[in-house]
Amino acid sequence: MPQSAKRPGGRNSSNSPPRDFGRQGFQRQLGGQSPQSRALDLRGLGLDSYEMLHKTFLNVSPELAHGSFPSLIHRSRALCTCFTPAKLISKKPHHCLAHFASATTNYSRPFHLFQYGGKKGCFRLHLSSTMSLDIQCEQLSDTRWTELLPLIQQCQVVRLDDCGLTEVRCQDMSSALRANPALTELDLRTNELGDAGVRLVLQALQGPTCTIQKLSLQNCCLTEAGCGVLPSMLRSVPSLRELHLSDNPLGDAGLKLLCEGLLNPQCHLEKLQLEYCNLTAASCEFLASVLRAKPDFKELIVSNNDLSEAGVRTLCQGLKDSACPLEALKLENCGVTAANCRDLCSAVASKTSLQALDLGSNRLGDAGLTELCQGLLRPSFRLRTLWLWECGITAEGCHELCRMLCSLESLRELSLAGNELGDAGAQLLCESLLAPGCRLESLWVKTCSLTAACCPLFSSVLAQNKCLLELQMSSNPLGDVGVQTLCQGLGQPGTVLRVLWLGDCDVSDVGCSSLASTLLANHSLRELDLSNNRMGDEGVRQLMGSLRQPGCALEQLVLYDIYWSEEMDNQLRALEEDKPSLRIIS
To answer: Does an H or E element contain 406, and which?
Structure first.
């Protein structure tokens, strides 16, 4: 970024010149894409360009005149573009909604509209055989709200995320929801609905024609006092399968009311999210009862609640007694201890369905990890994701972990971020990654006290391993020497890594020179993060030299908190214009 810019690590997008949307520009965007997947990026388009744009569409892609182009993307602060048969309409977003809906709902081919409202909000309307409305981060005016209500009555999916909704809006929305028998998903997260507003919404969903399957009321200011309506709602809506109530201060009393509804035979919920709900060990007995009673339960997320060792043990006992086919269990920052690891192993012993286990930010230590890994080594286990970030693990704990990596062929994602593994732990990990039984695809070792000394090991992994697709090594002092060593592995033929994170690794212009050469030799890497490193104009210039080449396959370069001159900023913007497949994030 230019050193004179006001936002560190960013670029003033409002000063970006409009893109060239001539015939060649559109043909370049359309080229090589199937009719089913094509999308156009219309960022930076002004009012004076719409007439030319319409003419270009008709010349380059006549099928647009008949409503058959499947996807349109438009990013602008104040404008929305609608394509209808033989007509191009450009108005403010809310003005064209009703016309767009009436003009396209009868088409058999999918038709999408995306509109980005700049810093204030994001709007998306998707119309096809399933119609959805998605608005994010926009404070809705009275006029705008009035125009949206008819869409809320029609759409199968309604997402109004952080839209300033309150109890007053819920009164209007309640009537619209009652009139919409097609609704299958409702997302009202991050709105201050309060207990009264949530009550209105839930009462509206209790009609005989309601078939909603997914409901999110995350961060809606729901308290214990508002939970009284939950039992009747869960009893009256047997179609509901997924409920998100995270970031609401329900407390143990509110959780008890929720579980009363969950225990009703008419409730068939399968997935429940309760992060940051002020739950304690007292809530675990209620949750254990639900697990025992619900044979179809698949996902329980209770991260960031102070359950303590006793509460986790109670929860594990309920899980052990349950026949449910649990697929995901997330207990981040819940007070899980090393002693609980034996409880967890016992609980999941019969859960061959378990695919994701998240125990991050719990002080398991090496002893707890050893206990856990031994329990996960059952032949029938099919775990795919294991998160153990900030669990107090050292190189000593890696011995049993690596034995599991070599034997558990189903494991695809492993996070060890924030553990003091050191180079000794890295050596054990790399030896496992080279074992024939390891099928890991994503490894996070961010902030693990790794140095350049371990990079030859990782270089060998990058050159030889044919499964690892993502490697997160940020916030380790690898330096230029370490990065140069990694590049030796990345430059070998047949490498498969697609995503590499090297943020805050003490990389300078010297390291960028090696990376620039690697970008030309490597044909698998698609995303590279070099944020918060020491390179300047010279390092960025060397990267740009490779990125300009047709043979460079990189699609995304992340450069947060990197400082460069105004001239370099102009060159970066020009490069993005010349190479639409490349995205530079800063």
So the answer is: helix 398-407
